Amino acid sequence: MVKPVLPSAATQPLPPQQTEAGLRLQQYPPVDRWDDWIEWDPKAWPRKVERHYMLLPTICFNCESACGLLGWVEKDTLAVRKFEGNPLHPGSRGRNCAKGPATINQVNDPDRILYPLKRAGRRGEGKWARVSWAEALADIGGRIRRALQDGRHEEIMYHVGRPGHDGLMEWILPAWGIDGHNSHTNICSSGARAGYAFWMGFDRPSPDHAKANVILLISSHLETGHYFNPHAQRIMEGKMAGAKLIVFDTRLSNTASMADAWIAPWPGSEAAILLAIARHLVATRRHDRDFVRRWVNWEQYLSAEHPGSPLSFETFEQKLLELYGRYTFDFAEKESGVPARVLEGIAEDVAGCGGRLAAHNWRSAGSGNLGGWQVARCLWFLSREAPRPTAGTSGCRARTRSLPTSRAGTISPGRASTRSPISR
Ligand code: SF4
């Protein structure tokens, strides 16, 4: 009979990871042991050799979610051995997507750039020379300085891949007197971002999905079209707590597959649907009148657009209905291809959100369509009108700057679609 290499489970000593609670399965090492966390060396098996780690909080930068990570640093060598989620990070709470732990590839990639390189040949020749940081900064900074001194501001352009400075460059670049700010998101999410930024000055709102009764998502938000892991996990929390999930998406995405109601509107027609829902709320008097009265610049609107009318909130509501009167469900059906009765059902869900609507729009509807940025703008308009300020949207509501209409060029009435909606 072959003798077992390891003793039986009953006689086997507990691994060093065991917590005081006596649990042998746990998600994360307890924080009070992050300075000296011990694991068996798997390569030494079947011998039991301890490896000691420091678990150092850091941030994943493989997308702008900036989830928390723990870098596992070997105490003997100070080498980073792996990355795992940081359970204390308030956004990601230790739940990362696969790209988070994959950060180790960036640390160990033999082709990673370790120091500044300066082109040493003609452009495209592939010749580079190593320079010091001081030399690189003096060179680049000197050129920027000379351009500013010469008044050649338009010759300076800042391009960033993942803008992780969270608004800092929005201070620095205007201080330099230049507006040449570019990033790779000009291609994908800029349409959604512009709609938010023009409306409220911030391009990445975070609705409180976890506490919502109704979650309305345009495009994909569960780790695909929208990359925000902290949103994705809270959307699922909200859904598991009973929230209704409504999704507008042209494809059966991860998000659409989780929806209680999924519609596939004709691309670019989402704004028409949102305006129809908003009109329905106002027409049935289920919009949040107190919020609109307090936060919307309706006095300015009336003074500018209807100077002879009484300056009262009731007049504003009447003008609002007239302005949006043509955005009926029939109109939205013609635009989107989704039957009016389905759209009205969605509007009723929004109207019945009980003060808890969480809504978001990202890439698919906002990009690739002329005027796609208006989708986010119309969604913001709807969020503002939704019944009662909610846990999900009150923190994100902003004072209205202007009312979205088809005059801005998004909606071309009469465009029909043969697209069959898939819903309910
Ligand atoms: S969502 Fe994924 S890639 Fe983005 S920061 Fe979080 S772990 Fe990193």
Overview of this protein structure:
With 424 residues, the chain is of the alpha/beta class. It folds into three domains: 97 residues, ADC-like domains (N-terminal domain of TfIIb, Single Sheet); 44 residues, no CATH class; 196 residues, Dimethylsulfoxide Reductase, domain 2, CATH 3.40.228.10. The protein is 32% helix and 13% strand. It contains 14 helices and twelve strands. The chain has a four-stranded antiparallel beta sheet. The chain starts with 36 loop residues before the first strand and ends in a 39-residue tail after the last helix. The structure holds iron/sulfur cluster.
- Helix/strand order: EEEEHEEHEHEHEHEHEHHHHHHEHH
Computed over alpha carbons, the radius of gyration is 27 Å
- Count every beta strand, where a strand is a DSSP E run of 2 or more residues: 12
User: Which consecutive residue ranges, at least 5 long each, have pLDDT under 50?
Assistant: 1-16, 389-402, 405-424
Domain module tally: 3
In CATH, the homologous superfamily of the largest domain goes by the name: Dimethylsulfoxide Reductase, domain 2
Short summary:
The chain is of the alpha/beta class. 32% of the residues lie in helices and 13% in strands.
Features:
424 residues; 4-stranded parallel β-sheet; binds iron/sulfur cluster; Dimethylsulfoxide Reductase, domain 2; N-terminal domain of TfIIb; alpha/beta; globular; 4-stranded antiparallel β-sheet
Write the layout of secondary structure elements.
Blueprint: E1 37-40, E2 50-59, E3 68-74, E4 80-85, H1 103-108, E5 117-119, E6 128-130, H2 133-149, E7 158-160, H3 168-176, E8 181-183, H4 190-200, E9 214-218, H5 229-240, E10 244-248, H6 254-257, E11 261-263, H7 270-283, H8 289-295, H9 298-305, H10 313-324, H11 329-336, H12 340-351, E12 357-361, H13 363-366, H14 373-385
Parallel strand pairs: 7-8, 9-10, 9-12, 10-11
Antiparallel strand pairs: 1-2, 2-3, 3-4, 5-6
Helix pairs in contact: 4-14, 7-10, 7-11, 7-12, 7-14, 9-10, 11-12
Bound molecules: iron/sulfur cluster.
Iron/sulfur cluster binds next to loops.
